[in-house]
Amino acid sequence: MSSTEVEWSRRVDGRRIVAGLRRKVAAPPGGPDDIELAVCAGDEAVHAPDDVMVISVRDVFTPITPREEAKFILY
Q: How is the chain split into domains, by residue range?
């Protein structure tokens, strides 16, 4: 299971967003430890914990090569 907060501001505080996400996902069975967290920002998410996926506009809209695409194939 994953939980994502999308704020397309140029720069967001990942620490603040992650704290909010952890509060929101505390209710599901298994608790928040079983949930992958992601933060989306226009350019960067500062202070995001190392275990949180950070996605920028550039990540979403930049074309990738076939070799890079192979890394993202889900089985």
A: 2-70
